[in-house]
Amino acid sequence: MKKVLLLKSSILADYSHSNKMADYFIEQWQEKKPSDSITIRDLVSNPIPAIDAEILAAFAPGDSKTEQQKAHLALSNQLIDEIKQHDVIVITAPMYNLNIPSHLKNYFDFIARAGETFKYTEQGSVGLLENKRAFVLTSRGGIYKDTASDIIVPFLKLFLNFIGITDIEFIFAEGTALGTESAEKAQQDARQCIDTVIA
Fold first, then answer.
1. Quick check: 199 pLDDT over 80?
2. Cystine design at 167: which of 8, 31, 104, 133 (Cβ 3.0–4.6 Å)?
3. Per-residue model confidence as pLDDT tens digits over 18-47
4. Which is nearest to 83 in space by CA: 159, 184, 196?
5. Are 114 and 120 spatial neighbours (Cβ–Cβ below 8 Å)?
6. 158 with 124: CB under 8 angstroms?
7. What values do phi and psi take at 123, rounded to 5?
8. Is 175 left (phi over 0), alpha (psi -120 to 50) or beta?
9. Residues 80-139: pLDDT tens digits?
10. What are the backbone angles phi and psi of residue 8, rounded to the nearest 5°?
């Protein structure tokens, strides 16, 4: 039995194309792998704070922390423990102004901690989240795949590799803002890809 963690980051709720992809993904996963467990973390309804100097100090070694810093550290520990306990990570990454949502970036800032999800060595940093598989469900209003304008794919590959996750599959829904027909085709293409990757 595997444990699946779904991270939702769209601000558009039921109108979100990435959420529709995620809902279909989980539906198909549960149908084909009914013994697996699913955890859903909605980063919009339960947002992670944007990192600042106080939060950064909360993650540093030492016992001299304010109550608020202790709360930030506790949340970071909770998020790290959660991702460590799951085998499959499903990430929704809609494109907002050419990048990922700030809600998702804030989550990444809370789980990227030396000694917990990566470590420094003489040969460089080494990711500590091993033997995990990631699926990235990314929706875009225009067409950006395999172009210089798509910075989401290289960034997410870089970050996930940084924390040790190297088995990554990207699933796209593009052209969602180019009319109803284009949006429907984007979802259809995404569903077909999901059917293929969930074996």
1. no
2. 133
3. 999 999 999 999 999 999 999 999 999 999
4. 159
5. yes
6. no
7. -95, 0
8. left
9. 999 999 999 999 999 999 999 999 999 999 999 999 999 999 999 999 999 999 999 999
10. -95, 135
163: tokens are 């924390």
| CA dist., res. 156 & res. 168, Å (int) | 9
Q: What is the three-class DSSP state of 66?
A: coil
Residue 13 gets which letter from DSSP?
A: G
Its pTM surpasses 0.85? yes
Alpha helices in 85-134, H assignment, sequence order: 102-111
What are the distances in angstroms from CA 54 to CA 51, 60, 71, 102, 134?
A: 8, 10, 11, 19, 31
CA distances from 50 to 53, 56, 77, 103 (A): 10, 10, 16, 8
Nearest to 43 by CA among 106, 86, 132, 85: 106
Mean pLDDT of 70-74: 97
Answer whether 168's CB lies under 8 Å from 127's CB.
no
